[in-house]
Amino acid sequence: MNIDSIRNGIVIDHIQAKKGMEIYDALNLSELDCSVAIITNARSKKMGRKDIIKIDKNIDLDLDILGYIDPNITINIIKDDLRIEKYHVKLPKEITDIVKCKNPRCITSTENELKQVFILTDEEKRAYRCKYCETLLQD
Amino acid sequence: MKNLIDIKDLSVDEIQELIKVAKDIMQFPEKYSERCKHKKLATLFFEPSTRTRLSFESAMMELGGNVLGFSSADSSSTAKGESVSDTIKVVGGYCDIIAMRHPKEGAPLVASLKSDVPIINAGDGGHNHPTQTLTDLLTISCEKGRLDNLTIGLCGDLKFGRTVHSLITAMVRYKNIKFVLISPEELKIPDYIKEEILDKNKIEYVETNDIEEHMDKLDILYMTRVQKERFFNEADYIRLKDYYILNKEKLEKAKKDLCILHPLPRVNEIATEVDDDPRACYFKQAKYGKYIRMALILKLLEEADWYEYR
To answer: Which of B55, B126, B127, B188 is at a distance of 20 to 30 A from B49, taking alpha carbons?
Structure first.
């Protein structure tokens, strides 16, 4: 299957297979006025199967969201048909307003203006805890 | 230290300093009787807790200060729908320091982020209760003369008991601490406490459901109440509430200098016959609570004055 290459834009590569749509939604890519391609289940030597997202424009990406959803993602910045930058995302130390605390006794359940903040407490286990009540974030 | 929200906010040195001041207050109370003259403590108790509130109020009075506040959310603006942030901003204008208890976990942290005056967490739901932990540490320091080289038995509700979790968190920073975790299967210590605190700090511990099994090795026995409000099923509560009843017979093998603690209130978990045993320290522990709160109020007010001066 062929997807046009992009001249100027971003390729989000090595997305865990089937997670492409989740990232598309989390980054609000449907709001963009440029072409966006999601390739799912592409063959990958490293991963077996993977998803790829191509964005036909250079935009500011929320790396925290990407790192939280899939820390193995690579980002490629394309300019004038050339890859000018490639980098890996990292597990963010803190995530804000991406997920909500499910603890009904947490103060965020009643103080509406509070941001939903989770802090990385164990990198190995990818464990995040609510900044306020310390409840473990579970998938 | 601007606020006390979580016992982890305090370094070992800061805890040591608070204990030192508390001991000095106990020895020379007159030296401190006017240290907080013209200062006001607001006790904002969004859920009732008579003994903690009285302990704070008594502490401030002994420092020569004044107290104001409320003892339930019904008598505050919360009943009208006011947020914690707004309440704190308003009350901060009427006092110099706030002790706050709230049923929602994390409420004191929110308060501290909005407040101009120091905030002391006096308990937030099942989450933190750092002044209880400071009380426990002062008691252990006074009764045992040390905070290291101790074998500590924790007995009862180790699953929901926040005092137990905080005490473990605080004690693992001292040398050669061992724990005996005594609970029924249903109320065992949560895995994350074992993995994130005990294992991570390489702390030796054993789990048992038999209170007598390791009694002869204990330096401290910390009893806790099985709390009715933590159970969804009343039958489970009734089955577990009297699982452990510490009495003279069970203490037969215990060391002569064992120190028996309990955050109180107790129900049946310690028989009243134990009260006269010289090893029973739980009523003294409640009294120590006032002195450590005095030391804490002093420390936070001094720091607040320093920030203002700067």
So the answer is: B188
8 A C-beta contact, residue B183 and residue B209? yes
Residue B99 corresponds to which amino acid? A
Share of chain A above pLDDT 90, in %: 69
Q: Which residues of B223-235 are buried (b: 16+ CB within 10 A; e: fewer)?
A: bbbbbeeebeeee
Q: Give me the interface pTM, i.e. the ipTM.
A: 0.87
Our CA dihedral for B285, B287, B293, B294, rounded to 10 degrees, sits at: -140
Q: How many CB atoms lie within 10 A of CB B6?
A: 19
Average pLDDT over every residue of A38-60: 92
Could you tell me the residue range of the domain that residue A39 belongs to?
9-88
Is residue B51 annotated as part of the catalytic site, yes or no? yes
A133/B83 Cβ within 8 A: no
Put simply, whether A116 touches B (Cβ < 8 Å) is: no
Q: Flag whether pLDDT at B202 surpasses 90.
A: yes
Same structural domain for residues A32 and A77?
yes
Number of domains in chain A: 2
Q: Domain limits at B274?
A: 131-279
